[in-house]
Structures
1.
Amino acid sequence: MDFKISAKDAAGKARAATITTDHGTIETPIFMPVGTVASVKGVHQRELKEDINPDIILGNTYHLYLRPKTSILEAAGGLHKFMNWDRNILTDSGGYQVYSLSGTRKIKEEGVKFKSHIDGSYHFFSPEYVMDIQRTIGADIIMAFDECTPYPCDYNYARRSMHMTHRWLDRCIKRFDQTQPKYGYNQTLFPIVQGSTYKDLRIQSAEYIANSGAEGNAIGGLSVGEPAEEMYAMTEVVCGILPEDKPRYLMGVGTPINILENIALGVDMFDCVMPTRNARNGMLFTAHGTINIKNKKWEDDFSPVDEMGITYVDTYYTKAYLRHLFAANEYLGKQIATIHNLGFYLWLVRQARKHILAGDFTAWKNTMVKQMDKRL
């Protein structure tokens, strides 16, 4: 993997860069649509590629392992071929899913025993096995196995969990170095900084991760319910320690405002289910604020979904029509809203990149944050 910084914001820490893998170039800052089970919910790969146009999407190790199972993915020639996606893919390690299954999992030093949400069967993830699974899935960027702590989190638990995540990282690196990619292209391993919202733990973890010498680094355990100010504070601390010449990925973040504020702190990569999940509930993100398309006020509004026309759905359909689809519980409404929201997120990070390159990112970001912080 190759990472090159093209420009930095003079008034802050934002940067525009490129990440190059065997599946092509990723221009950063980038938002990665979440394709949990080899599908970005409600969106054809053709629409994803031509209308939303991300350089990279995300898959989920836990879900893909359970269904369709790694044997099917291997027989298909890896996830890229299975889902017919020829651009970059990142897979998370399953650590977050294991965290969210708190009632049906047991964590110990060796790894995590958990119960499938599909059929109740028991499975065991060790750091080594998670590396093997991700080798078989075949993503370009794979994540180390970690424990994502909840919020709020007891200090002693956060400290113990962080140290275990570090020990697991050493085991991940060892297994990764002992194995080869399966499908003729390279894979890159990113470790994950933990430490909850405790500054001293975040510093320790960021230093440990920085010293691992990986080609890129991730920040985990944020966007789990803590106030945005705490997220920004922890991100700032960690970005000040992680190497300047490696990409930084903030996992599971967030709202359009969260993304801009974290770009300003030096983050390059983001993913979040928010644009797709909120779309399915009728919430549209726009440059001028959020729209709840289910509200009666849009019933006879025959203006385009979004006058900016970022994707084809924005001008092809009206607000009144989209509201009608939601009222009638027609799945097309969810699809339209999903394409709009993902298109908007990609537009937003590409505008951020443009303004970093132009040298006026901070002023633009401050204006956008005010505009987007409204209910329309």
Note: The mean pLDDT is 96.
2.
Amino acid sequence: MVKVNRPHIGIFGKMNVGKSSLINALTGQDVSVVAAHPGTTTDPVKKIIEILGVGPVTILDTPGIDDTSALGAQRVERTNDALDQVDLAILVFADQFDAYDQTLMETCVARKVPFFFVHNKSDLQKLNVEIKGADIVDFSCKTPHLLPRLLEMIKKHLPKSSYSQDVILDDFVCGGDEVVLVIPVDASAPEGRLILPQVQTIRNLLDIGAVAVCLKDTELREYLQNHTPKLVVTDSQAFAYVSSVVPPTVPLTSFSILFSRLKGDFDAFLRGTRAIDRLKDGDRVLILESCSHSVNKCDDIGRTKIPNWLQKYTGKKLEFDVLANLDPIPADAEKYKLAVQCGGCMVTRTQIMRRLDILKEKNVPLSNYGLTIAYCNGIFDRVTEIFRKKGI
């Protein structure tokens, strides 16, 4: 599993309850600064560790939720943002369980974030509280024999879906099948490397025992004259040309569509994409990026190409807003008539689903880059056919 897909575990709590000591104990390293002075951690700190039976995970140390210093409000806001990015929250308290801890627990419940409590510094004070509806484990960095119990609690509460093996083409391709991967090398391609969905798809095919044939779009026509692959997967931006070259008898889809199934709500995407036909002049469309990147105003897929495709297809003048990274969904999100999510290769499924859930609550139709491009090119049914045949 690549780095960005590792499950994220966040450590949350008040200042000076030993959150940084806890992360140092988990990692076996001095990752976070530890001091008696409250508010030592000013920004979320990340570290990767390996947990037996789970694999690699990313641990986040966060600022205290009770920080009232000059910059405290900003630090607390970052902590709250981090809560939306994790697959599991470890809630830490020490000498007393108070309203801050209760609110933190209620926030996890409201946001459907799995959690458990760590009673830290348990060597100094015995646990004197019972928290209904939550597991609690004692811990102290001075009693390392308690670490296995803490790790077991992590494995108990970490959703298996966050670290189980990714399924990309396992249910469509068998050992020995030939799959053609169309990878254009043009101005929008990264210099000297493949993008992550391409790499993960190649690795998945190798694990299956299938044959991965990587071609540039300019090489595809000649190759197909003598080969009939089981499936063709292309960069979505090349859909128009590739669909004209690949015979109708050969299934076709894209990397982005494969990842919309892997990382998003595929059923919601399939339904929501058809909302493109209902767009009217002046309607607002939300473009959801999931990473930071250098923007090429002429070739950027989310900021330029998809808006152009949508306006050309619909014949309507639309308004577009872009959210980069994992910026919060606007409170007035109901104003959007469509939201288009990128493939999400640089974030986890949990992180994408949290933002999609907010939009679903606002009844905003959802789509994905690849599905939107396919719809605007008139090949939506063709590139989703393999999934519909499987009843997906």
Note: The chain has 13 helices and 14 strands.
3.
Amino acid sequence: MRTDLPPLPSHPSAEDEVLAGLRRRHLREAVAALPGRCPQLVAALAEDPPPTYRELSHRLGMPRGSIGPTRARCLACLRALLRTERYA
């Protein structure tokens, strides 16, 4: 193991903070551009702690059994949108 390397910084650099902010903004914009209930569902799933499917069912007015499949479709759409935006 090399010991002659400088120590890693204990806090992110200004550049890292700016890039992280840009990534967060880009992600928020992409989530907002999703169709239907996807923005509300994805935002709720990002909460800490995430709500239960029972809570989501009540909040979004959708059957509990449709939350998982809807979540999968929303996340696939989000991935595609981010991929398109990033490489377009």
Note: The radius of gyration is 18 Å.
